[in-house]
Design a protein that fits this description.
By secondary structure, the chain is of the alpha/beta class. The protein folds into 3 domains: 134 residues, Rossmann fold; 58 residues, Histone, subunit A, CATH 1.10.20; 75 residues, Crystal structure of tRNA isopentenylpyrophosphate transferase (bh2366) domain (Helix Hairpins), CATH 1.10.287. Helices cover 50% and strands 13% of the residues.
């Protein structure tokens, strides 16, 4: 059975803040279905916290909830970005904060659901950064670098901060490098809650999670995962960009290019999804009292 853990983060500090619910857990743990049932029960609306479901055209590979599965519940932060463009964590916080305000004004409960941990953390908390003045010379030298190059640089300077940061956000990466260069590393950031948050952690047992992952992979392939990638290619989205969208898009592209067989495609998707689920579980341990 799916185990549900309730955790009220910093409740004493958050009594005067707006109340929201957050549902977290590894991929295939049943978050979307649970969120819909809860929204019906408590008069809520749902805000997706998934770094790829924000993109239009990424439906099968992201296991995006369908209209039928929504059961009439309003969902926010789905299909709000162009797949050709990069959508950052800052973009998400702005969109999700706006949605929360909109839902609260209607007298309903905002329910955040998703597996992108740094999106959820950025939404729930304000970070107090150290007082390090800007370094114009360093910024000028870093300005022409790619986000991949900046991220690799930060990983060498401060692996812990690199693990937490949005690796696609050049502004945040440069600032983190700036701080790490000045102080040796980015100090652990002080977090202040934005909301009075109840977190629900869905944590299936490993054997059940593996079965759900295998079923999800088979369903994605049946629903047209390969066709979805072909449609992206027909839309003139570069192969490099498609690979950036995650292994669910990288491996089908390899299949289309003749680099792997169909059975290998399923095997690779299962293996990488399980690895991703374990990383998510590590991230969300903080929500498990």
């Amino acid at each position: 059975m799916i185990r549900v853990v309730f955790y009220d983060k910093m409740r004493a500090m958050a009594r005067a803040l707006a109340k929201i619910v957050v549902i977290v857990g590894p991929t295939t743990s049943g978050k979307s279905e649970y969120a819909v049932r809860l929204a019906i029960k408590i008069n809520g609306e749902i805000i997706s916290a998934d770094s790829r479901q924000v993109y239009s055209g990424l439906d099968v590979g992201t296991a995006k909830i369908t209209k039928r599965e929504m059961r009439g519940i309003r969902h926010h932060c789905l299909d709000i970005a162009d797949t050709k463009q990069t959508f950052t964590v800052d973009d998400f916080v702005k969109a999700a904060s706006h949605a929360i305000d909109h839902i609260l004004k209607k007298g309903k409960t905002p329910i955040i659901v998703g597996g992108t941990g740094f999106y959820i953390d950025a939404l729930l908390y304000k970070n107090a950064f150290p007082n390090v003045p800007p370094n114009p010379t360093l910024r000028a030298s870093l300005g022409s670098r790619t986000t991949k190059s900046l991220f690799e640089m930060l990983k060498k300077l401060d692996p812990r901060r690199a693990h937490e940061i949005d690796s696609k956000n050049s502004r945040r990466l440069i600032r983190a490098i700036e701080i790490a260069t000045a102080l040796g590393k980015v100090p652990k950031l002080k977090k202040t809650p934005r909301y009075d948050t109840k977190v629900i952690f869905l944590n299936p047992k490993p054997a059940r999670l593996k079965k759900r992952i295998a079923a999800r992979t088979a369903q994605m392939i049946r629903r047209g995962l390969v066709a979805e990638i072909k449609k992206l290619l027909a839309s003139k989205i570069p192969r490099a960009r498609i690979r950036e969208l995650g292994f669910e898009y990288k491996f089908p592209l390899d299949y289309i290019d003749g680099k792997i067989s169909r059975p290998e495609l399923a095997q690779k998707l299962n293996t990488e999804t399980w690895r991703y689920a374990k990383r998510q579980l590590t991230w969300f341990k903080k929500y498990n009292p």
